[in-house]
Design goal:
With about 230 residues, the chain is α+β, with helices and mostly antiparallel strands. It is built from 6 helices and 8 strands, in the order βββββαααβββααα.
């Protein structure tokens, strides 16, 4: 890895205080994946970075450093920010948190970067947020090397999902049973049926809970607190 990297397309995933006036910022970049960088003086009111380093703003950034933790050199907005509010803002924070928690530093995922832009645009339009989230979640899992083998789901049968074993056949009387036709629809990304959407949400949550272990998603807790209507969020 070069000592200095210039002009990388990026978005802010998360920012937290670092030392007296600096910030530690996690970026999602097109060519390098997640990059963690110290932004010196970022919390100073006069900092040139203060207004720029906001979530959902398309950026071009440069950094230096050979270690895992970089130092930001420059950052500028290259397009208008995606303005989200209410439930769409919480959905955007949920997507950011998944990337922050699950991606490794300096592990490129250019395809996922495109889907990240897709889900932000869908959140902005607000026409079918639920489908956009499910599509993005599956792309993220695929990029992590963790996908579902829907070919195992035979017609007119029922299955439960085990995070380490995959789909296992079971009785329809099992409370965890999922009908094969709904699972196959998820495999085709056909979310026209309400039942398919419910099963997909349940399935994705089960896998992400497994991958996150004991880590709780802050964004999901916010959803619970404000009691966002079912189906509109994560």
């Amino acid at each position: 890895m070069a000592f200095q990297v210039d002009a990388q397309a990026a978005y802010v995933l998360h920012s937290r205080p670092y030392r007296d006036t600096s910030a530690l910022v996690d970026f999602f970049t097109l060519e390098n994946g997640k990059v963690s960088a110290v932004v010196k003086g970022a919390r100073n009111p006069r900092s040139k970075f203060r207004a720029v380093l906001q979530p959902f703003t398309p950026l071009q950034i440069s950094w230096r450093g050979r270690q895992e933790l970089k130092t930001l050199i420059s950052a500028e907005a290259v397009a208008a920010p995606v303005f989200l509010s209410g439930s769409t803002l919480l959905c955007g924070l949920y997507v950011n948190e998944l990337l922050e928690r699950l991606l490794q530093n300096i592990d490129p995922h250019p395809r996922l970067y495109v889907y990240y832009q897709y889900v932000l645009n869908e959140l902005l339009e607000g026409t079918d947020i639920e489908v956009a989230l499910r599509v993005f979640e599956r792309q993220l899992l695929q990029q992590l090397g963790y996908d579902f083998d829907f070919s195992r789901c035979l017609p007119e049968r029922h299955y439960y999902y085990h995070p380490e074993q995959g789909f296992c056949q079971t009785s329809p009387m099992n409370k965890a049973a999922l009908p094969a036709d709904l699972l196959q629809a998820i495999g085709r990304e056909d979310y026209n049926q309400v039942a398919v959407r419910k099963v997909a949400k349940r399935l994705m949550r089960q896998v992400f809970d497994h991958l996150l272990g004991h880590q709780r998603l802050r964004s999901r807790e916010l959803f619970t607190k404000i009691r966002t209507p079912a189906g509109s969020g994560s």
